Amino acid sequence: MPLAGVVPPAWMDAVVREDGRGRSRVERAAYELCALEALREALGSKEVCVIGADRYRNPDEACPRTSTSGGRRTAAEERRLGHRDSEVI
Question: What angle do CA 30, 31, 35 make, to 5 degrees?
Answer without folding.
Answer: 120
